[in-house]
Amino acid sequence: MGETIRVLLADDEAVLRAGVRAILATEPGIEVVAEAGDGRAAVDLALRHRPDVCLLDIRMPRLDGLAAAAELATALPRTAVVMLTTFSEDDHIAGALGAGAAGFLLKTGDPRELIAGVRAVAEGGACLAPSVARRVISRLGEGQLGRGAAARTRIAGLTPREREVLGLVGAGLSNAEIARRLFLVEGTVKAYVSAVLARLGLKNRVQAAILAYEAGLVPAP
Fold it and tell me: Do residues 73 and 152 share a domain?
């Protein structure tokens, strides 16, 4: 990835696309390289332009955002997908995360959250709008998304250090922050995170964070 973060924006509402594009245009180092009004066009344009980040609406014609995200996760695994929507229902959250999305932001959120989210996922991190994060954590506590016993069994094969790193990912720390916390170099942390994702069959840090909560590595607020 170069210094400029290349973004593809897909939404069937042209006015909303213009608004998001205007927000991103205020931030140096972020460039919208393509726009689409439906999910199928978004996938086609992503394959052509290979952006660093795709911002996808959930409800779009021809191919919805969740299906587009699933296709992109397979075809362009290095492209981070963020779902950008007005909807915050649990089924949409679960569907987006299951499709491999690295983030979930609300269109009604603070523009600063949008910019920070794009930067976070472009750097290999994850982003959840605060209201979405609260809903996910709440559902974990209720057991509707959480499977505590299964999660603890799933992480049983990790080394103590790997479990520690997973817990810090779940707490929302970046690789640099984890490195400072554990007195490691950032490259070592990145290797640990990659190894944990691979061993557990996780697509990204969002799924890792959810598993960390399920397994009790991070206390829910």
Answer: no
pLDDT of 148 > 80? The answer is no
DSSP 162-187: HHHHHHHHHTT--HHHHHHHHT--HH
Q: Which domain does 202 fall in, by range?
A: 146-214
- 32 and 128 housed in the same domain: yes
Residue recorded with tokens 């779009």: 60
The CA distance from 90 to 119, in Å, is 25
Contact assessment for residue 183 and residue 217, using Cβ atoms and an 8 Å cutoff: no
Question: Do 32 and 49 contact (CB within 8 A), yes or no?
Answer: no
Give Cβ neighbours of residue 6 (< 8 Å, ≥ 6 apart): 31, 33, 49, 50, 51, 52, 53
Q: How far apart are CA 120 and CA 174, in angstroms?
A: 9
- CB-facing half-sphere around the CA of 34: CA atoms within 13 A: 19
Give me the helices (H) in 99-158, please: 111-122, 130-142, 148-154
For 28-84, how does the pLDDT look when each residue is reduced to its tens digit (9 = 90+)? 999 999 999 999 999 999 999 999 999 999 889 999 988 999 899 889 988 999 988
Structure tokens at 82: 């963020």
